[in-house]
Design a protein that fits this description.
Elements (H helix, E strand, L loop, with lengths): L2 H28 L5 H20 L3 H18 L7 H22 L7 H13 L10 H7 L17 E8 L1 H5 L4 H9 L3 E7 L17 E7 L4 H7 L7 E8 L1 H4 L9 H11 L30 E4 L27 E4 H28 L6 H24 E3 L1 H4 L2 H12 L3 E6 L4 E3 H5 L2 H15 L3 H6 L6 E10 L2 E8 L6 H10 L11 H5 L22 H11 L3 E7 L3 E9 L4 E9 L2 E6 L3 E5 L6 E5 L2 E6 L2 E7 H4 L13 E6 L5 E6 L1 E9 L3 H4 L6 E6 L5 E5 L1 H15 L1
Parallel strand pairs: 8-10, 15-24, 19-21
Antiparallel strand pairs: 1-3, 1-4, 2-3, 5-6, 7-9, 10-11, 11-13, 12-13, 14-15, 14-22, 16-20, 17-18, 18-19, 20-21, 23-24
Helix pairs in contact: 1-2, 1-4, 2-3, 3-4, 3-5, 4-5, 12-13, 15-17, 17-21
Length: 723
Amino acid sequence: MDPLAAIRETFFQECDEQLAELESGLLAMEGGDQDPETINAVFRAVHSIKGGAGAFSLEALIRFAHVFETALDEMRSGRLEATSDVLKTMLRASDVLADLVSAAHAGEEGDDPRAATLADELKAMSGGEDDTSESEEDWGDDFDFQPQAVSFEAPAGPTGFVVRFKPRADLYAKANESALLLRELARLGEASVELDAHDVPPINEIDPEAAYLSWTVTLTGDMDETAIREVFEFVDGDCELSIEPIAADEAEAGGEPEFDIGSLLAKVQGDAPAATEEAPAEIEPAAAAEPEPEAAPEPAPTLAVVPKAAAPEAPADALASTGPRKTEAGATIRVDLERVDRLIDLVGELVINQAVLSQRVMEAGLARASAVAMGLDELEQLTREIQDSVMAIRAQPVKSVFQRMPRLVREVAAMTGKPVRLVTEGEGTEVDKTVIERLADPLTHMIRNAIDHGLESPEKRAAAGKPAEGVVKLAAFHRSGRIVIEVSDDGGGINRERVKGIAVEKGLIAADAALSDEEIDNLIFMPGFSTASEVSDISGRGVGMDVVRRSILALGGRINIVSKPGKGSTFTMSLPLTLAVLDGMVVSVANQTLVAPITAIVETLQPKASDVHSLGGHSRVISIRGGFVPLIDIGMALGYRRDPLPATQGVALLIEGEGGARAALLVDAIQGQRQVVIKSLEANYRQVPGVAAATILGDGRVALILDIDTIVSVSRGEMRKAG
């Protein structure tokens, strides 16, 4: 693959991170954050995107980012006040910037009318000024890989400084450029630049992610040290820097640059060796003053892995005096997801084989104190530690999904004419990356519905004594070994009378059906149900909430609704933390072996005849600590037997389902606790009610993993009918 194409792909991956930083910073400012570092982070994000775009001549992106950057510079200097209207314009600008990045990535870069209109607004906010010195032509020169002589001219002054700086690898990893720093220095006065390339190793020893070059810049003119340090503000800690004043007579000796960066680059690039497949997966957009490899691995989805500790940085106030500087440990590395997935598969097989060995040892009758049994116990502990570590690598915060929602809220709010504020909580809650990737569509549907159907119009809210601005809340947290995501609004709640009427009209239920409030609320998940009076770009085709429910079920999750008329609605999704391995209780039911997720089990108990009461038919409840909970015979629920098992002959598993509801599952016996590898039953067979997935036991048999929430929900419905 073309090495430049590989670097280009990496640039767009980093753009996603910069865009996320940009939007989160603007939203924080909109929420009242006045920390100067927040605006600096926002400015850096746009600056980095602009700098990287220049390397690939993405002119439409460069032009808009430049105008955006100028407006942000006015804001961070205090000349532009961060009012609500200004921040709304900035947020729209971040949306347009994201669209321009997407278009450039797809190779469809072109003039966007929205970009031109918004650029005019940004210029107006900036006082109508545009820094023509940083035109698109200037940017093209900065990143032209052809030989270019560096020349800086500025009015000379009587005093000056000698600036010595040596970039670290981190400087380039963050998409900053030495060439830009040199140019900014040249704007302060007349600059004489000397390149120190003695640390560059032989061409076959060059590390494409290292930094070998350093510069000495003699500045003469009317400037102060503060202005020079401001040039390096965004690379503070990422380069070694020293600034020394010089006398007036020494300043006058400054002359023309003594090197040609472009020629040096051409020489280095022409001789660079091809990278091998074992080369580091992350290759940053290289600065025009750093050597680049001629080949790179094929771009693939990557996962940033954060090590527990990183090497401390060297002091930033002086240059290294001797010898080449070693590359420091970075904060993250990029790893192909295919490699991580392969590692997870291998860990799953390791878990299965460890279970097989345990089974063989038990069948052989070896004592627990034997050397083989003790070694097997150690293997089991190591296997679990490996599994936990691999799962931690795949775990990512839900922020990557949550950060897409503010733009959606802005767009839907504009389409509906409803002022909406999005509140997010628990963005740092971690879950398996596979789960995160499949959450985007369900959340998009739910937030659209929350704004379109849940929130009232400003007029109706005013009449109800509510603020005109509606609130949609998106929260994530861990509970009982699962991740829970809530989407709530402060709207009018579900109009149950209307929902039931529409369901009857569409033939989804009988006109005389007696339904509880919970059952009426859940009608909105039925295929073809919609309360929209007409089809629009937002909703009304009758597929939204049905799609949500099926998507959540496919992830092994559950969704329920709590709605209060006039107060709003809350949709709660409960999902497994990982789709790979779980801790389960292995039980026997009617000569079948099943697995119950241990995170749902509160306790186990042996039922007493005096504690079990019949409700008619096969429905029973059991008394536990002064309260009654349904007693569900798993064998009957799954169709393994027709007659119920006498309660005193089995074991009850007290479980807690969604919303804190409790029930007792009656099984024949408990075989033990075991870590099992999840295998999709739907992908290999078909969906089975009451069964979430399957696993392979140590003796090679297939065991079904119970879908506890579905079993409890169905049984409760049958009990209500029996009552």
